[in-house]
Specification:
- This is YCII-related domain-containing protein.
- With 126 residues, the chain is α+β, with helices and mostly antiparallel strands.
- The protein has one domain: Alpha-Beta Plaits (2-Layer Sandwich), CATH 3.30.70.
- The chain contains two helices and six strands.
- The protein has helices spanning 18-38, 89-103; strands at 2-9, 41-45, 55-60, 63-68, 78-86, 108-111.
- The strands form two sheets. The protein has a four-stranded antiparallel beta sheet with strand order 2-5-1-6, with helices on one face.
- α1 runs antiparallel to α2.
- The protein is flat, with a radius of gyration of 17 Å.
- The model has no long low-confidence stretch (mean pLDDT 85).
Length: 126
């Protein structure tokens, strides 16, 4: 089994009424429950946006420097995610597709590297 991160950015979500958000929440929770029932869900949370950012931290001269909230320059903010443990890319795509369809906004899928697994650089070379 391999772990995957399925995410969406808050900016990818068009404006919704309160009723639309309730409907999307119900639809999204149904997919999360399916993931739970299939035993693939590790963890999920869809309640993130710009207002939930606590701080940013960077290393300056070997010491952590904290800044309240996100960097002002940031144009995208994580809106939600699910971490699943599934057999292959096809299964990860299936669950991302279920979420994209239920919520009607884009999802992005990332595969976590396993222990000892080579990472690729931006060109696709190892």
């Amino acid at each position: 089994m391999t772990e995957y991160l399925i995410t969406f950015n808050d900016e990818w979500v068009p404006p919704h009424t309160a009723e639309q958000i309730r409907e999307k929440s119900t639809a999204g929770r149904a997919v999360i429950e399916e993931m739970r029932a299939d035993g693939v869900l590790i963890f999920s949370n869809g309640g993130l946006d710009r207002s939930t950012a606590l701080c940013s931290v960077e290393s300056v001269d070997g010491e952590p420097v904290f800044t309240d909230g996100p960097y002002v320059e940031t144009k995208e903010h994580l809106g939600g995610f699910a971490v699943v443990d599934v057999p292959d890319d096809a299964a990860a795509r299936y669950w991302a597709g279920r979420l994209a369809t239920a919520l009607d906004w884009p999802q992005e899928v990332h595969r976590f590297h396993g222990p000892g697994e080579a990472r690729r650089n931006g060109s696709g070379d190892e």
